[in-house]
Specification:
By secondary structure, the chain is mainly alpha-helical. It has helices at 11-28, 33-47, 53-65, 70-109, 118-146, 150-164, 169-213, 218-225. The protein has eight helices and no strands. The chain is extended.
Length: 226
């Protein structure tokens, strides 16, 4: 199914694609929803071309805003985009199956594990370093695709400083909503004014052309009079 258009896939194959894709993602990726984003991009944007990078950015913002686990929210969002409600259920089932199975296995073995075992601690240390790198790469990619002006850079810096000062994330999100709305309204108004100015210039040029064509040639009139 690599590289195939979604329109060429039957409904059953769409659901199977969603289930198997999220099964592999949650089975192999450690670190939660943010660490999954590069793999989701590779599968659904680059490989299968079922999503655009803009839709992926929208998904990232939405899944971190609404309540719930980021991995499940991402699966539901992509499943809805590709296969509707059945697609959302298939993607969510694929995302849940590996973690649920692994947690059951770990829970059964946990009483026998030594929390002070240096090899076990080394494994967790390596996993934390890897997850940190994956989240950092995801943040850099999102920054390059989202922040495209000086004003947006300033907003990112302000909210970063507020986050470092341990301001509640809920307050930051609530503050970002009206700012984003005002920013889009301002950009839309600027674009509309620019288009109106361009249309006005074209109309002025068009109205001046007929007057030049219909101007009277004095030599021709003089010849007719004679």
């Amino acid at each position: 199914m690599e590289g195939m258009e979604i329109q060429t896939l039957s409904r059953t194959r769409r659901l199977l694609l969603l289930y198997c894709s999220f099964f592999r993602i949650t089975a192999l990726v450690v670190g939660g929803g943010l660490a999954m984003l590069p793999v989701i991009e590779e599968i659904f944007v680059v490989k299968h071309k079922l999503l655009t990078r803009e839709e992926l950015l929208d998904m990232t913002a939405l899944t971190q805003t609404v309540p719930g686990i980021i991995a499940i929210n991402s699966a539901v969002y992509i499943g809805m985009k590709i296969g509707g409600v059945p697609g959302a259920l298939a993607a969510a089932a694929g995302a849940v199956t590996p973690p649920f199975t692994v947690i059951l296995i770990i829970a059964s073995l946990f009483p026998r594990l030594d929390p002070k075992n240096r090899y076990l601690l080394g494994v967790f240390s390596g996993i934390r370093a890897c997850v940190t790198g994956m989240i950092l790469v995801t943040g850099c990619r999102m920054f390059r695709r989202t922040v495209k002006s000086g004003l947006e850079c300033a907003v990112v810096l302000v909210f970063f400083v507020l986050a470092v000062m341990k301001v509640s994330p809920a307050l930051l999100i609530l503050a970002a909503i009206p700012f984003g709305w005002c920013y889009v309204w301002w950009q839309t108004r600027r674009l509309s004014q620019a288009e109106q100015a361009a249309d006005g210039g074209k109309k002025t040029e068009a109205s001046s052309e007929p007057s030049a064509e219909t101007s009277v040639d004095p030599d021709k009139d003089g010849g007719r009079g004679k």
